[in-house]
Amino acid sequence: MSQENTTTDANSKGGSTADFAFDESLVEWTVPAADWLRIHDKHFDGIGTSGFVFDAQNRVLLVQRAAHDSMPNLWEAPGGAVDAEDASVLHGCARELREEVGLVARRMKRLVTEGRSEERWSVFTNRSGTKIICGVGFEVEVEEGSVVLDENEHQAWVWAGEEEVRGERMGDGRGIKLTGMMMRRKLLEAFRLRREDGENVRANEVLMIYSCIFASKYSTESKAGSESSS
């Protein structure tokens, strides 16, 4: 069973305090980016994060990159580079969510990979091709609040369902062309993991029902046997 932990960073970039829970499976990401790279003997030039946020209708938050930025007008999950000032990789992810979409992380739920191998992170280059970046994704539960974009980076946002992500088109016909296959694979893997959660919950509910039926039947039979013997 997963355990919950909490972490606080009173020195987060911008002077805000980052305070959120995280699943024990994410403990390796609770160190600064430089320490993570050293511990794992990785020679990447930095770590970039993506935060996968879902609403109550199981739709994921996507943001459209600004027309004047690299990969103009394409869609992605909010995220960005972990800074040297960030207390940990998780704090970097939480900060990027707050800066890009105005949402406050409440719980880091799990790692989201590309789903096609056991590799826990992706590798890509920066826009000039001069730096190699380690890309890591997390499903993040957030505090209740409204999406507020940083217009310097993004120009629109949507909540998209799995089939809308798969087809890169919203139900009303609007296109949501993604930044690339890496983002697409991570988004679909995030949906798969949530679907797997639901299947496990239903299996546990069925098991509980059968356990209750068995316990009730055993109690009734035991009572009947006791009465007949007396």
From TrEMBL:
Start and end residues of each Nudix hydrolase domain: 44-183
Database matches in InterPro entries: NUDIX_hydrolase-like_dom_sf (IPR015797), NUDIX_hydrolase_dom (IPR000086)
Protein's recorded name: Nudix hydrolase domain-containing protein
Organism: Hypocrea atroviridis (strain ATCC 20476 / IMI 206040) (Trichoderma atroviride)
